[in-house]
Design a protein that fits this description.
With about 400 residues, the protein is α/β, with parallel strands linked by helices. The protein is built from nine helices and twelve strands. The strands form three sheets. It has an eight-stranded mixed sheet with strand order 1-4-8-5-9-10-11-12, sandwiched between helices. The protein starts with about 35 loop residues before the first strand and ends in a 5-residue tail after the last helix.
Length: about 400
C-alpha cells in the first residue's frame, strides 16, 4: 500500500513531520533528547488497510530516538523489538526501572553506535507501551478495544513503522535491525520495502513460524483465556486482569528463550532457600522460583490481550507463502545488504532457519553474509553480552556505512 503521511499530536514534544531530526532555526532540536517517548498519530485521514481485511486509523505509534540525524538524513537505523520488548531500547524503563533491553549492543561507542547513527525504536502496532493496541480505546465505540481489536500481522506492523518513518521525513533507512520477532520485521521490511533500506540485520529469527513455535504460543494463549479473570478479553470492564494466565504464558515462553545448558549452568537441581524437599508443590527448585519470578514481574508491565495478538502475528508470519511458496522470490531483485545471524544453541529459531534465509537471498544473487555464533545461552543470546556477536554487527554496519557514504563522527 502507499504509505500515508501522518501527523503528530500537538504538544511540546511534537517534532512535526517537516523537522524530524535537526533544527535549522537554531532552536533546541526536539529529537535530540535521547530516549524520550513520543507518540506519532498516523493514518489519520486514510485508515491503514490490514491483512485481515479491516482498516485501522488513526494509529498511534510510540517511539524513541537516539543520536542525531545527519544533514543527508542517511544514517537512520530502525531497531525492531521482540515479542515482549518495546521502544525503550536504551535508558531506564519507565515501568520496570531496569536498563533498556539492548544496552549491550546499542549506545555511544557500541556496536550500534549512537554517536554515528540516528536510532529509531517504536512500540509495535498491537503493543501495550503507547502504540495502538487492544488495551486502547476504539474511537468508533469509545470502549476499550479488547478482542474487538483487529488481528494484525508482521506486515501490518511494518506498514505502521513505514508511516512513522515517513512522518519523520526519512525516505530511506540506512538499516533495519532486530532479533526474534524483530528479525521477522526486518525480513518483512526487506521483502516489502526493499527500496527504503540499505542494509538489514535479521538476528535469531526465521522466515516463517514453525509448528513447534505455534504450539508453544497456543499453550500461552490458552493459559490466558482459561483464566476466569480474562472475561473473553473484556477484563478491563470487569476491573480485573488475567494475571495468573499471563504469568503461566510467560513462564512457558521463557523456557524457550534459554537452552538446556543455560538452565543447567544457572540452576542445576539446586533447591530454593531450603535444605530438603518439601514433598509438596511449593517452588522447591531454584528453576521453579526463577520462572515464577519471570511470570509475576511480566504481568506488571504487559497486557494479556496484547500477548494474544502479538503471538498470533508471529504465528501467521510466512514470507515464502506470501511469495508463491518460494522464499527466494521475496528477495528477488533486492539491492539490500544482509547480515543474517544465528546462535548455535537457539532451539526456538534454530540456525537452520537462518541458513534457509541466507540461502534464499543468495539464490537470487543477493548480497548476504551469514554467521552462526557458538554459544550455550540459547535464543536470548542476542540480548546478552556476546562480544563476538557485537563485533559482527559492528563490522557489518561499519562496512555498509562506508558503502552508503555515512561518515564517521
Amino acid at each position: 500500500m502507499a504509505p500515508d503521511t501522518g501527523r503528530a499530536p500537538a504538544g511540546p514534544e511534537d517534532p512535526g513531520p517537516e523537522n524530524p531530526g535537526h533544527d535549522d532555526s537554531g532552536q533546541k532540536d526536539p529529537l535530540a533528547a535521547d530516549g524520550v517517548t513520543r507518540i506519532a498519530c498516523l493514518a489519520v485521514d486514510k485508515p491503514m488497510p490490514l491483512d485481515c481485511g479491516r482498516s485501522l486509523g488513526p494509529i498511534e505509534i510510540a517511539y524513541t530516538t537516539f543520536g542525531r540525524l545527519n544533514a543527508a538524513r542517511s544514517n537512520a537505523i530502525l531497531i525492531c523489538h521482540a515479542l515482549t520488548g518495546d521502544q525503550h531500547v536504551l535508558g531506564t524503563h519507565p515501568v520496570t526501572g531496569k536498563p533498556g533491553w539492548w544496552e549491550t549492543l546499542v549506545g555511544p561507542g557500541r556496536a550500534i553506535d549512537t554517536d554515528r547513527y540516528f536510532l529509531i525504536c517504536s512500540n509495535i502496532l498491537g503493543g501495550c507501551m503507547g502504540s495502538t493496541g487492544p488495551a486502547g480505546i476504539d474511537p468508533a465505540t469509545g470502549r476499550i478495544w479488547g478482542t474487538d481489536f483487529p488481528v494484525v500481522t508482521i506486515a501490518d506492523m511494518v506498514r505502521a513503522q513505514a508511516l512513522l518513518i515517513d512522518h519523520l521525513g526519512i525516505k530511506r533507512l540506512f538499516a533495519v535491525v532486530g532479533g526474534s520477532m524483530g528479525g521477522m520485521q526486518v525480513l518483512q521490511w526487506a521483502a516489502s520495502l526493499p527500496d527504503r533500506l540499505f542494509a538489514a540485520v535479521p538476528i535469531a529469527t526465521a522466515a516463517r513460524h514453525s509448528a513447534q513455535n505455534i504450539a508453544f504460543h497456543e499453550v500461552g494463549r490458552q493459559a490466558i483465556m482459561a483464566d476466569p479473570d480474562w472475561h473473553h478479553g473484556r477484563y478491563a470492564e470487569h476491573g480485573s486482569r488475567p494475571v495468573k494466565g499471563l504469568a503461566v504464558a510467560r513462564m512457558t515462553a521463557h523456557i524457550t528463550y534459554l537452552s538446556e545448558m543455560a538452565l543447567h549452568n544457572k540452576f542445576g537441581r539446586r533447591l530454593q532457600d531450603r535444605g530438603a524437599r518439601s514433598y509438596g508443590f511449593d517452588a522447591d527448585f531454584q528453576v521453579e522460583s526463577y520462572l515464577r519470578h519471570q511470570g509475576s514481574t511480566f504481568v506488571d508491565r504487559f497486557d494479556a490481550n496484547s500477548y494474544l495478538y502479538i503471538t498470533r502475528a508471529m504465528d501467521y508470519f510466512d514470507l515464502a507463502a506470501d511469495h508463491g511458496g518460494v522464499l527466494a522470490h521475496a528477495f528477488r531483485g533486492s539491492r539490500v545488504r544482509f547480515c543474517v545471524i544465528s546462535f548455535s544453541s537457539d532451539w526456538l529459531f534454530p540456525t537452520a532457519e537462518s541458513r534457509a534465509v541466507a540461502r534464499a537471498i543468495a539464490a537470487v544473487a543477493g548480497n548476504v553474509s551469514f554467521t552462526e555464533i557458538e554459544t550455550d545461552r540459547g535464543h536470548d543470546a542476542f540480548l546478552l553480552d556476546e562480544p563476538v556477536f557485537a563485533r559482527i554487527v559492528e563490522g557489518f554496519l561499519d562496512g555498509a556505512a562506508g558503502h552508503a557514504g555515512i561518515d564517521r563522527t
